[in-house]
Amino acid sequence: MLKPSLLSVSILLGLGAAVVSAQSYGVGRPASAEEVAAWDVTIGPEGHELPEGSGTAKDGAQVYEVRCKECHGEEGVGGDHAALIGNPEQLKETPPVKTVGSYWPYATTLFDYTRRAMPFEEPGTLTADQVYAVTAYVLYLNGLVGEDDVLDRESLPQVVMPNRDGFVRDPR
Amino acid sequence: MKPRDATRRSFLGTGALAGAAWTACSAPEAEAPAETDQPSSLGTPVSRYGQRSPYEKAARGVRESQTPEAASSRTPLDQTYGIITPSALHFERHHAGVPEIDPATHKLLVHGLVDRPMAFSVDDIKRLPSVSRVHFVECSGNSGGEWSPAGAPTVALSHGLASCSEWTGVPLRILLEEAGIQPEAKWILAEGADACLMQRSATLEKALEEGLVAYGQNGEAIRPEQGYPMRLILPGWEGNTNVKWLRRIKLTAGPQYVKDETSKYTELMEDGTAWIFTFEMDAKSVITAPSGGHAIDGPGFLEISGLAWSGRGKITQAEVSTDGGQTWTEAELQTPVYSKAFTRFRLPWEWDGSETVLLSRCRDESGYLQPGRAELIEERGRKSAYHCNRIKGWRIAADGSVTNAEA
User: Fold this and answer.
1) Band of residue B146 on the pLDDT scale cut at 50, 70, 90
2) Is residue A26 part of a domain?
3) Is residue A88 one of the residues assigned to a domain?
4) pTM summary value
């Protein structure tokens, strides 16, 4: 079936005009596997796309001290910017406390966001090992992993966040 | 030359008449003839890019922030006319500053569950069939202060995280079909080229139905603050999904649960659960004139004017109350009314000089009626920070000053 948008193009072109293919405009170029791999930083909730590398909360404490503490405070609270520590019971408080520990449904999200958007003024500058480590540290502060637990592409998606089942699709 | 002469004569004629009328009314016994006020020297020459009058000062509202690169600025809705927001006054919400992008090197990558991953340059995109559509973009945090009964004191502060433009670009469907959509694909992930690589998930259904990769805004290239050289437009969906500086679209089987669709832009309910993927912006209206901070110069005729919009289609009705909600009068809608766009409403009014409260409410083509604060809270509770679309009131004092009316 000819797509409506292409049909109208053909009509506009009129007599003697080249027929535009129904399959493709032939505009744009194929992207190479390398260029897709270089840009595809997406990490879904199952973590299939997580990179090589690893880290523990112990390693992460040092990364946190240098790269995160100034904004997020000592041990993830008391900073000028988002607090990182909490539990879902605090969502019932007024005002609610929405943090990594209290609210975020997936640990993979913490890795993804930290890797591409943190530190705020130098996003994208942490190595994969550093991101695994500081992710482990924040999860450790929330009581979700042990201090020496190694987080990597296998173990990180196994971390069950306390509020994983806290979200429902928009009922409006 | 003839039309120009005719215009000039007509202009001078109008000026002379106006002058005569002024003379007749205010100085009937004056002996000197009225001044023509004709300039005695030439004005400035033609120029390459126009500027507004130096007398015009409308500006976006910007609050002090520790992180002005991750902040917002607000459209002064009471200082715009009609339904189009001047591009220079379109609200901003950035998460990592405005990137400087050379269109010659920018590319849009389409990959994931597709037959052929594709890269499109800006020139490629501009070769493809284009459409122009008028749509609002609204931050879902707009009117967040209105969850409280107090509400914000001006319409820029209460509703200024919404703006409306004519967007020109390529239907996203065309780009996705160039890459070949695989049957397992049900969602897309859109990514911007800002420093944080801002990302949002959206349904493939929406992308195919209405998604637009826009490079034009109000007749010229999209402004850097609005996503130059291209942005995603998902009409009627919360602003954050309309990813600016669009550089990558990945087709996926499910949503990615990125930070800005989990920790932010979700609606927390009283029981601790939260609504996720709350994409559509509900119908909302607000009176822009007169509005908070204005001062009415005495009783008499005054046109009431405002804006209404809905993420679910066209606005079908706007009503105004001039007595604090006791009675409602249907306002006239400016035509044409566009779907998922600002709709200007107007109502002639004779202010008698007594204190009162002005309110507006609207209905969209789905039949939805804009709620009051109590109804909205009954549905959502008081823990939600986004998607507040309650009726907003302005109190007119006897001295003509206009302030927020508590809900």
Assistant:
1) very high
2) no
3) yes
4) 0.90
